[in-house]
Amino acid sequence: MSLLDDILASKRREIAVLREGRVEEVAQASLRTPLDVVRALARPAGAPLRLVAEVKLRSPSAGALSRAMNPPTRAAAYAEAGATMISVLCDGPFFEGSFDDLSRARARLDAGGFSVPLLAKEFVLDGAQVARAHASGADAVLLIARIVTADELTDLARDCRARGMEPLVEVTDEAELARALAAEARVVGVNARDLDTLTIDKARAARVLAAVPSGVVAVHLSGLGTPEAIGAVAASRSDAALVGEALMRQDDPRELLAAMVRAAAGG
């Protein structure tokens, strides 16, 4: 079995638990109106590249990352440094994240007056995970085209939108991009990292990003670690880019993220 197979087997066990309830959380979440993710990430002509900063305590490829800041504190630091959106890993066994990290990040951002959308980054196979993301304060939910059927992808995307959240559909190649568009995705993320081998292929990612139709938000995922790399993506068709491990290696990520924000604006 590949690492991805192991992760999905773990998710299926978790889903059985999620299906048991969390009714109170869902009811509470219904009182909050999610932020407009498309508006936040769409990049008008001449505007800076939008940056999505990730909260991730561990990576299967990089191992343990900085714990100097807890997830809500790091989310606030990202917002202070100019992140357009913040991604929070919600997987426990492989990334040491949780939906509780997401909800605590939402509370911290709200308390600090930061109107910054949150992405629930999870291996979503079932509507129970979408409901939990909504209950935890997500504005967007990652849907990975590779791990579900075309019909399941469409159904999960509709479930997200029915709850006011935006599905961010992750793809790796043109065939998966076609499935994302068939599911009416308005935000498409192209992962430069292959989920089976964990290798980075920037040329493939650039090719698929260039194929994302105008009017659909295109997000570069993975493989960006320096302001120079951000500057290169800013010169492409991409509307936004996600930065994870480079920021998570920093005990205080604000200086590096601020430099990346400047590079995203052409500075």
Structural class: alpha/beta
Provide the succession of SSEs.
HHHEEEHEHEHEHEHEHEHEHH
Q: Low-confidence runs (pLDDT<50, min 5 residues)?
A: none
Helix share bin:
40-55%
User: Main beta sheet: strand number and arrangement?
Assistant: 8 strands, parallel, barrel
Q: Tell how many strands the DSSP assignment holds.
A: 10
Question: β content, as a range?
Answer: 15-25%
Give the termini distance in whole angstroms.
45 Å
Radius of gyration: 17 Å
The geometry reads as: globular
- The tally of helices reads 12
Q: What are its keywords?
A:
43% helix; 12 helices; 267 residues; eight-stranded parallel β-barrel; two-stranded antiparallel ribbon; alpha/beta; single chain
Q: If you had to describe this structure to a student in words, what would you say it looks like?
A:
The chain starts with a helix and ends with a helix. The longest helix has 16 residues, at 3-18. The chain is 43% helix and 16% strand. With 267 residues, it is α/β, with parallel strands linked by helices. α2 (23-29) packs across α6 (127-135). It has helices spanning 3-18, 23-29, 37-41, 71-81, 99-111, 127-135, 150-162, 174-182, 202-211, 227-234, 245-248, 254-264; strands spanning 50-55, 58-59, 63-64, 85-89, 118-121, 140-144, 166-171, 187-191, 217-221, 240-243. The protein has an 8-stranded parallel beta barrel with strand order 1-4-5-6-7-8-9-10, surrounded by 7 helices. Strands 2-3 form a two-stranded antiparallel ribbon. The model has no long low-confidence stretch (mean pLDDT 93). It is globular. 46% of the residues are buried. It contains 12 helices and 10 strands.
